[in-house]
Automatic annotation (TrEMBL):
SUPFAM superfamilies referenced in this protein's UniProt entry, alphabetically: Aquaporin-like (SSF81338)
UniProt keyword Calcium, yes or no: no
Source organism (scientific name): Cirrhinus mrigala
Protein topology in the membrane: Multi-pass membrane protein
Name this protein carries in UniProt: Aquaporin-4
Length: 106
């Protein structure tokens, strides 16, 4: 989740937000970043975790009993912790002048 959050949320930053007439956020670019980052992470780590990149996948696997409850809880905790750490890293490396628009798509 750390890599996913860094790539995906990093793509939503409007680096020109402080300009007088900033260009609109490119939703196609953001959508491609989200989709391609998921596809890349599934391809890279699918054989390790069964492609549990999103907590919704983990919940679905637990609900259909393809994953034990104990393992599902562990995966969910790891995913949430990874997302928070990824967001914190992104916040730390993003200049203060553009942080106000971080994660905002419109």
């Amino acid at each position: 989740m750390i890599i996913f959050v860094l790539i995906s949320l990093g793509s939503t930053i409007n680096w020109t937000a402080k300009q007088e007439n900033p260009p609109p956020v490119d939703l196609v670019l953001i959508s491609l970043c989200f989709g391609l980052s998921i596809a890349t992470l599934v391809q890279c780590f699918g054989h390790i975790s069964g492609a549990h990149i999103n907590p919704a996948v983990t919940v679905a696997m637990v609900a259909t009993r393809k994953l034990s409850l104990a393992k599902g809880v562990f995966y969910l905790l790891a995913q949430c912790l990874g997302a928070v750490v990824g967001a914190a890293i992104l916040y730390g490396v993003t200049p203060a002048s553009v942080r106000g628009g971080m994660g905002v798509t419109s």
